[in-house]
Amino acid sequence: MDVVSAAGIDVAHWAIWSGGAAKAAANPKYCYEWSFVEPNKVVVLNVWFDDLREQGGTITLQDNLRESAALHRENRKGGGPIWHKRALKFDEAVRTASTDQLPIRMVICHGVMRKREELSARASKVSARQLDTVPWAVATYEAGTGRFTLTRGALPNLLVDQFSAGVQESPTETRSETGTVFVRNPAVRKSALARANGECEWCGQPGFTMDDGSVFLETHHVVPLSVGGPDAMTNVVGLCANHHREAHLGSARTVMRERLQASLRKSKT
After folding, report:
1. Are residues 112 and 200 in the same domain?
2. How many CA atoms, within 13 angstroms, populate the side-chain half-sphere of residue 3?
3. Do the domain assignments include residue 13?
4. How far apart, in whole angstroms, are the C-alpha atoms of residue 85 and residue 148?
5. 106, 131, 152: which is the final residue of a domain?
6. Does 126 share its domain with 185?
7. Residue 10: inside a domain, yes or no?
8. Is residue 26 part of a domain?
9. φ, ψ of residue 99 in degrees (nearest 5)
10. Given this model, what pLDDT does residue 79 score?
11. Contact in structure between 101 and 41 (CB atoms under 8 Å)
């Protein structure tokens, strides 16, 4: 509890149980969790030292907790159902860190680690844990699969589009002489950029990096607002500037619209 608190998580509610404040650290509702989220502030993850990798001076963690959850979904023995729930919660915490661009504080654990595929093995046992003094960040997160890479010492990827960066809006969007414009929900744009994860959803190439470290992609309504397209995640993609213009003005714009719509339907499933 002390380590999680030091990382920035509010632990006041740990004391609300039969053991009271004197035994708050032993509250089973929280003390065995793998991940914690302080909304709009920080994500805290418990990870194993043996899972970390170092290359060229950069320390990373690559994993997919949805795969772990799937292993335990049908395992009704021991802690299977509990591990399934905790794994999905860990995945959601990483997703939140990616979407909300939050820093990650890592609690590094050491001890006897149970192999993930050994479903009947005894639970892992931590003999030592320490809060890493260096923040981490999500380098990549695949929303479709749950696979992620976390990097030690990195800053959260700042994802911006043409509106948040102050770029003139798309040439095909219209406005009246009295100043009427189409209203776009910033939350939808932000979610679309998070799903794209810094890469054009048409060509797969990364957006360019701006002076402040932000990654720039343009958000695009596949079916334009001007013809009744919804301002929703199911209709908004992140595109590089070149393919955004092509989606509006190119001779292949109809084909692009159809393929992007198909891609959005697939990501939804």
Report:
1. no
2. 20
3. no
4. 18
5. 152
6. no
7. no
8. no
9. -65, -45
10. 59
11. no
